[in-house]
TrEMBL record:
This is DUF503 domain-containing protein. Pfam families: DUF503 (PF04456). The lineage of its organism: Bacteria, Bacillati, Bacillota, Clostridia, Eubacteriales. InterPro entries: DUF503, TT1725-like_sf. SUPFAM superfamilies: Hypothetical protein TT1725.
Amino acid sequence: MIVGLMTVELHIGGATTLKDKRRVLKSIVDRVRSKYNVSIAEVDNQDLWQRATLGVAVVSNETGHVNQMLETVIRSIEANGGADLIHYSVEIL
């Protein structure tokens, strides 16, 4: 069993309140979760209204499939338009 973990840091420039941030994140999380069947959640910076950290997890029996899924997810998040990608890191267990 191969587990892929990805941490994604985002800047939400258009957010002026936590409510704005939650709206943008809900859109990203719901779309990624339903389209790619991965586990995704906000894992840090919950109190900052223009910054978010998401955690993404994928489980498979092949390392190549895990890497492909995580790359696809990061491309989808970048293409969203509601938030700018600051940094991401991937760990394969």
